[in-house]
Amino acid sequence: MIEFKADCGHTVRAKDEDAGGVVRCSYCGRNAGVPETNDTDLSFLFRDVETPAEEAKKGGFLGSLFRKPVGRKDFNPFAIIFRLCYIAGVIVVIIVVARKFVIPLFDEDVRRDRFAGKNAATAQASTSDVRQTESPGRFGLVTSKVLRGLMVASIPNGAQVSCIEETDLPEGGRVRDAPRCVQFRANDAPSRVKEGTYVVEVSFPWNHPKLSDPGLAHYDKYVAFRRAIERASKSRRQELASSFFLPDGAVSTFVDETVDQIYLVKQYRGVAVGKDGLAAVRSLFLPRLKTADSDSFLLEPLLHGYTDRARMYGFDEQHVRGELTFYGVPASDQRFVIDFLSRVGIAPYMTADQTTRLFKIDPRNGNVTARVLHTTEP
Fold it and tell me: Is the dihedral of CA 206, 207, 208, 210 positive or negative?
């Protein structure tokens, strides 16, 4: 019996009388030449081990990884593990490259800065395009989206917003009950209302989880406030609501009761929305924490637990500090006011002469303004 390796790598057995002839390989079906003598040195057992040069001719390293061995039935788990690790490594590289170089190309700001060659340090925000970043010189609302229309933000978030043009405002009653009222949620994308001047109402149910969260530091004060307005008259309820919440520029703060629910409402007037501009209302349902020796209130405790730590507004901090100094805010309090402005965009402050001013950051360009709040609270 003569045993030899056919061209396909399969071991073929032939009779001694077929030496020098041709037989058919039972594996591949092709003719195979029978050697004159048997392979007595058993070298045929090692012919399926290819040299690196032979591997390169048949597809190189990748070919050797994924080519099915011919004529071998042994199972090698290490080879499978190695192949899986190689595939996983390739996938990781693809993901990293895609996230770093490919996906950012779909961001309009990245394309503009990368291909238009704009210097972020000297770029100026326009009134019709308020796409902002935290890079120096590009101030305003820190966002990658184009914002137009009416933007309403509430602290805490999730308030219900109702708005109507001033000319359509009915005498008496809630804005939300008016026929042409537009309603949406605070802290969502700006509402694309038409050009005009609006009356905006921002409201929370008095038992909203964001207001009555036992985890908040001043939860006990809010519980006492709820108990007080539950028993109070309508006029007294408005006084309690106005004195409990931090002033934020609302023309009135009141309590509205329906058959099923009690609502805490803040109303803002004269909100002007331009054709291609952005109007912003920022509503603070935060407790007015008064100091022990005066009617002034504190901002520092509200920064922890009530406001998001993320910086939402960019501005020239040195310029803002100068404005705070001009209006009598002591250096010891300026850090808290600036932190409040960067997170919320507005910050009320009562100076030593008992004047309450509302500092505001323009969401379009980061400019700071200050106006006196004429409040009726004690």
Answer: positive
What's the rounded Cα separation, in Å, for the pair 322 and 313? 18
Whole-prediction pTM? 0.62
Tens digit of each residue's pLDDT (9 = 90 or more) over 304-342: 878 888 888 999 999 999 999 999 999 999 999 999 999
Type of residue found at 278: L
Give the three-state DSSP class for 265: strand
DSSP 8-state symbol, 16: G
Nearest to 225 by CA among 249, 250, 258, 253: 253
Q: Which of 376, 289, 365 is nearest to 124 (CA)?
A: 365
User: Could you give the dihedral angle defined by the CA atoms of residues 20, 22, 24 and 30, in that order, rounded to the nearest 10 degrees?
Assistant: 110
Q: Compute how many other C-beta atoms are within 10 angstroms of the C-beta atom of residue 39.
A: 15
Q: Which long-range contacts (CB under 8 A, 24 or more apart) does 287-294 make?
A: 287/218, 287/221, 287/222, 287/225, 287/244, 287/245, 287/246, 288/243, 288/244, 288/245, 288/246, 288/247, 288/377, 289/218, 294/354
pLDDT for residue 134: 38
Q: Which two tokens stand for residue 130?
A: 């308020």
Biggest CA pair distance of the chain? 122
* Tens digit of each residue's pLDDT (9 = 90 or more) over 119-142: 333 333 332 333 333 344 468 887
Q: Is the backbone of residue 170 left (phi > 0), alpha (psi -120 to 50) or beta?
A: beta
d(CA 328, CA 341): 17
